[in-house]
Design brief:
Layout (H helix, E strand, L loop, with lengths): L3 H16 L5 H4 L7 H11 L3 H14 L4 H16 L8 H21 L4 H25 L11 H15 L4 H13 L3 H14 L5 H13 L3 H14 L4 H13 L3 H14 L4 H36 L4 H42 L4 H23 L4 H28 L4 H13 L3 H10 L3
Length: 448
């Protein structure tokens, strides 16, 4: 998936070719026919008396509705009126009338089958004005030093892009950037409606369109809408890992855990040797396991309190407490069973990734996180057990998971020794295991 910066950079490069077409309107209007009203309109354009020019050209059109030149020069008048308006957000109406006039001029030129300068220049004028407005927007978005300083550059960029789209409603390029600017400016609803317009205009939306639109809905926490968009996108682009991962995430946020896993497993069935699919599945199942472990944390606390209190009760009160304790322990056992199964699956999936990418530091780090988080949950369980012998068994299991975490974090630092996050994780593990010399060395490398 492209980054926002790469999108804007690519668009800026594209625009350079259009800017080479710039020809001053004043040079264009040096041409013209013998109609005195058209000459009056040309004179008004040169003197920047645009309203007078438009009035004269309107009169010429009233007298001769099929006069292509009158429409053409009226298009120029509106174009220059818009460009000379310092209030960028107030240019839209003039640009709309510019495009309307030029389209009519082209229609009349086509009927008359005349080949002249004006007929050719009408298209160039539209392209030139579109490129000018679009490129100004890019300058504000990318903090180009040539852009005039303004208080709210993204809002100015929005206005320029709306102008560009008014000039050329078929420019998906301008719509693309506008959607991104809306997102950057926190106007997610506008970003969504703009991107939906893009997708309607395309004969077939590309996978990036579905990816972006679903991201906007996810940003708004409208996961059901994101899910529907992603299902539609995956139907067209079944091999898009990004779309599948977002669909799995949407299912997760909707509480549809099994559907989340099934989506990714379907990819693995089609291509079991694809390490990226295993990575996505590993992340997904571990996320579910970790969520369950977080659910267990307050339950362990309740369990500890109930174990202590049940010893103080008598008669029916004690019997009721024992019943509640048994139900609580059954709930703990059920959740632990699911969490353990998913954790083992996550570990297995990450190991599959390592099989294909043996020097991928991030995967070793992911394994370290799985083991460390599992250890943390086990330490919480240990603290909730009153029986010392049983607590010791759980403590040993927790420390074994920490040692596994340590091994994987160390491998991660071997392949990426400059990553301070890896060293911070190692510092925590070393400290918990009482390996203070190593903890001190890790702390220095973590920049702590």
């Amino acid at each position: 998936m492209k980054s926002t910066l790469s999108i804007l950079t690519d668009m800026k490069k594209i625009l350079q070719s259009f800017l080479s077409f710039i020809v001053l309107a004043i040079a264009i209007v040096s041409c013209g026919g013998g109609n005195p009203l058209i000459k009056e309109g040309q004179k008004g354009i040169k003197s920047k008396n645009f309203d007078a020019a438009i009035s004269a050209l309107n009169q010429a059109i009233d007298e001769e509705p099929a006069n292509a030149e009158a429409y053409y020069y009226r298009g120029i008048a509106y174009a220059e009126k818009a460009s000379n308006n310092s209030n960028v957000s107030m240019r839209q109406e003039s640009y709309f009338k510019m495009r309307e006039s030029l389209d009519k001029a082209q229609e009349l030129y086509a009927v008359s089958e005349k080949k002249n300068v004006e007929s050719t220049e009408a298209d160039l004028l539209i392209e030139r004005k579109w490129a000018s407005e679009h490129n100004l927007a890019i300058q504000y978005i990318t903090n180009d030093s040539t852009a005039p300083p303004v208080d709210k550059p993204l809002e100015v960029a929005e206005s320029h892009l709306i102008n560009a789209i008014t000039i050329n409603p078929d420019s998906l390029l301008s719509y693309d950037v506008l959607a991104e600017v809306y997102r950057l400016n926190g106007k997610v609803d506008d970003a969504i409606s703009t991107l939906e317009t893009i997708m309607k205009k395309r004969s077939t939306p590309d996978s990036f369109d579905y990816d972006r639109l679903s991201s906007y809905y996810i940003q708004k926490e409208e996961y059901d809408k994101a899910k529907n968009i992603l299902i539609e996108g995956i139907d067209i682009y079944p091999d898009s890992v990004s779309l599948v991962q977002k669909l799995a995430d949407s299912y997760m946020n909707l509480g549809m855990r099994n559907e989340s896993i099934e989506v990714i497993e379907s990819l693995i069935e089609r291509d079991p040797t694809n390490p990226q699919y295993h990575l996505v599945l590993g992340i997904q199942v571990f996320t579910i396991a970790n969520d369950i472990n977080e659910e267990l944390s307050p339950i362990y606390s309740q369990w500890f309190d109930l174990q202590k209190n049940v010893q103080t009760f008598r008669g029916s009160e004690k019997k009721d407490a024992e019943s509640r304790l048994a139900a609580l322990e059954s709930n703990i056992e059920e959740k632990e069973s699911v969490s353990n199964r998913l954790t083992k699956q996550a570990i297995s999936e990450f190991k599959q990734v390592i099989k294909y990418r043996p020097e991928d530091a991030s995967v070793y780090n992911s394994l370290g996180i799985v083991y460390q988080n599992t250890a943390a949950s086990l330490f919480e369980k240990r603290n909730a057990i009153l029986d010392n012998d049983k607590a010791a068994v759980v403590d040993d299991e927790a420390k074994e998971n920490l040692r596994q975490a340590m091994t994987n974090y160390e491998r991660a630092t071997e392949f990426n020794p400059d990553n301070q996050e890896y060293w911070r994780a190692l510092f925590q593990v070393y400290t918990t295991l009482g390996m203070m010399d190593k903890a001190e060395a890790a702390m220095k490398k973590a920049g702590m």
